[in-house]
Specification:
alpha/beta; UDP-N-acetylmuramoyl-L-alanine:D-glutamate ligase; four-stranded mixed β-sheet; 12 helices; ribokinase activity; transferase; carbohydrate metabolism
């Protein structure tokens, strides 16, 4: 690699309260957990850290609250070599918080309190326009208000920067609203997420649940996954990758569907596997000049990163270095 790719992430920054339990409780049920810990997270921050560890120069745009978590969140990003010049401190709300229940199988259930993430604005994004314009790739998710996401897409399109969207967390299928931050913090500004203008990105990477919400039908097997990927492409996404856990990744690119098998590992916590996948993919694709012909190779690399993340507890602590990703990647 001769040139370090430049990646900008516009997204959330959370403190994760991770609860280890034998199984995730059902509605109305109380169970005893084995342990609890506070770990730096948030999809935007997770993906920024994953991309930095995989070899990119990364800038993050977002907000934290002026609270007890602020310094820990920002210092952690600095240590991981993520530029936080455009992370603002909001005096009026707390930092974002995610409560994550992880069962013995490694599966999880997550509840997010957006906090400062719900106050990221289009103005915040415009203030970071020079950073976006100088990037090779822009990474987005949906834990911040939709206005900020759309402004980032607008700027990137205007200057020819490739855009990658992880449509997570998916809006409730019944409410059909925009981002989780819009649903909880800005009810008067709710926007229909299914506006296809938002899906008109260079790379869309939902998991199977999010893909099902987007297309309105189940994504329970490879046939349904391919159909969903083709639908999302028809609605505007140039390239689509649907992550399907230990079954692998369904990729639709250049008119062809390709199933990439997963790396076989012993998963203990899948919380940030998708974010690890996204960050590593962004680096591999940017290094290849964001050429469509290199999508499958980049997904292979990203799959190794996602598999490694599932082998370690916590979000950002589970992100693998480039050397570790390449070591697993080369086994295929």
């Amino acid at each position: 690699m001769n040139v370090v790719p430049r990646i900008t992430v516009v997204g959330s920054i959370n403190m994760d309260l991770v609860v280890q339990c034998q199984r995730i409780p059902q509605a109305g049920e109380t169970i005893l957990a084995r342990s609890a810990s506070e770990i730096c997270g948030g999809k935007g921050a997770n993906q920024a850290v994953a991309a930095a560890l995989a070899g990119a120069s990364v800038s993050l745009v977002g907000r934290v609250g002026r609270d007890a978590f602020r310094d820990r969140l920002l210092n952690n990003l600095r240590v991981q070599n993520v530029d936080i010049t455009h992370v603002r401190t909001d005096d009026h709300v707390s930092s974002g918080l995610a409560v994550i229940s992880v069962e013995e199988s490694g599966q999880n259930a997550i509840t997010v309190v957006p906090g400062a993430n719900g106050r990221v604005t289009a103005s915040d994004v415009r203030d970071a326009e020079s950073v976006i314009r100088s990037s090779d790739l822009l990474m987005l998710q949906l834990e911040i208000p939709i206005d900020a996401v759309m402004e980032a897409i607008r700027i990137a399109r205007q200057c020819g920067v490739r855009v990658m969207l992880d449509p997570a967390p998916a809006p409730n299928r019944n409410s059909r609203k925009s981002s989780i931050a819009d649903q909880s913090s800005n009810p008067e500004k709710r926007t229909d997420f299914w506006d296809d203008d938002l899906l008109t990105v260079d790379f869309l990477c939902p998991n199977e649940s999010e893909a099902a919400d987007l297309v309105g039908h189940g994504v329970d097997d490879l046939v349904q996954a391919e159909a969903a990927a083709r639908t999302l492409h028809a609605r505007g996404a140039a390239n689509v990758a649907i992550t399907m856990g230990d079954r692998g990744v369904m990729v639709f690119s250049e008119g062809r569907a390709t199933m990439i098998p997963a790396f076989q590992v012993s998963a203990v916590d899948t919380t940030a596997a998708g974010d690890a996948f996204a960050g590593a993919f962004a680096v591999a694709w940017a290094e290849a000049g964001c050429q469509t012909a290199n999508i499958v190779d980049a997904v292979q690399f990203a799959s190794a990163a996602g598999a490694l993340a599932a082998c370690t507890h916590g979000a950002q602590p589970s992100m693998a270095t480039r050397d570790r990703i390449e070591e697993l990647w080369r086994t295929r």
